[in-house]
Amino acid sequence: MHRWDPIAPPVSGLVVPVHIDPTGISGPTRAQARGPRWRITSPGWAVPAHVSDTLVEQRILEAHARGGDEAVITGWAALRLQGGGFFDGLARDGRTRLAVPVAANGARLRSRDGIDVVADRIPPDEVVVVHGMRCARVERALFDEMRRIGEVREMAVAIGAACAARLTSVRRMRAYVATRRWYRGICLAREAVELAVEGARSPQEDRFRLIWELDAGWGRPLLNRDVFDEHGRWVATPDLLDPVRWVAGEYAGADHRDLDQHAWDVSREADLRAVGLEYVEVVGRDLRARRVVVRRMEQAAERAVHLTRRWHLGPPARSLDELLDERDRDGRG
Fold this sequence. Notes:
The protein has helices at 30-33, 56-67, 75-81, 138-149, 152-164, 170-178, 186-195, 203-215, 259-274, 290-304, 320-329; strands spanning 18-19, 38-42, 45-48, 72-73, 100-103, 115-118, 127-130, 133-136, 222-223, 227-229, 234-236, 240-242, 247-251, 278-282, 311-313. By secondary structure, it is of the alpha+beta class. It has a four-stranded mixed sheet, sandwiched between helices. Strands 1-3-2 form a three-stranded antiparallel sheet. The longest helix has 16 residues, at 259-274.
């Protein structure tokens, strides 16, 4: 799987923790669990020592085992189990592990040791079983993740990440949020839904889009739309495009440092300018310096007025709702 693939790869070989057993029949004794052949996952539970929790799904499974029969995995962890590739269980620094959010649903469970117990119950009609684990359905899981985040822009980015994985759509999420009028954080959730978009291919690209739309005040750009020259030849598919200002934007992730990729990026930039589109590129650190990005965009717009248009747009992609509705009808969702 590419690092920026929005859909999580298939998972196999997960190992369910076993109870520590004083008799040693159904699990290791306490002395055995402290030995080299076992790894204690939480008080009273263990897995064989060769089983690593570096695989995020294994870490979720170990948290689920502690919750009991009624507990439900929710938030980012439930989204990951259902295929959300960008919900990797790490904070924005890419290193710090997020606690696994679990709705105790009446079970005796406290927030500690990598588990974050959420206060609200999750009813049976919002629960689905994935890899043998009870987890919240997509819209409920995303709603809980948004409330955990608590900041409108990042809440919108989370919606975009779920849409990129084709787990839900903005329309479906808007309808879900409308039914949760009495929940904590509902005002921010409504605002985030209206700010969210479909079509961004990564969270960083979506963060660039938010600067473009809000800080620069340029309005909503076209996302990943094909650009063709006047002879009908494909030129590029920029991350962001303003068809009025004739400016294209691109987020350059870590993979763009590769020499071959960098050479291709330079060529694409030249090709876009040749057909009359100016180009703005940002990297990760730029996203924390919004004024710098806005100024770079304004400079590109100033240069674009001297260009001659020799490009046209390709047709829009099929709507996400159309794809999801088709999947539901076919019984694959």
